[in-house]
Amino acid sequence: MEKIERALMKSLHEEEEISISYYRDGFIHDEYITDINIDAQSKVVYYADVFGLNTRLKFDEFVDIK
């Protein structure tokens, strides 16, 4: 989880696109994301995908970040 948090913070500060994998509805999904906002108190990450759609993920849904 620490690796994921570090990668999210780096992407937030450097405004770079990153690749994430997350688990939802019984499947692992892969996406490229940008425009990250992290709510550490509720452990939720808000982001825009490559199509500009705003989405949110809980920290525990993340599987990997590249």
From TrEMBL:
PANTHER family noted in UniProt: IG HYPOTHETICAL 15966, YOLD-LIKE FAMILY PROTEIN
Protein origin, superkingdom: Bacteria
Entry protein name: YolD-like protein
Organism: Bacillus cereus VD021
One family name in Pfam for this protein: YolD
InterPro entries, per the entry: YolD
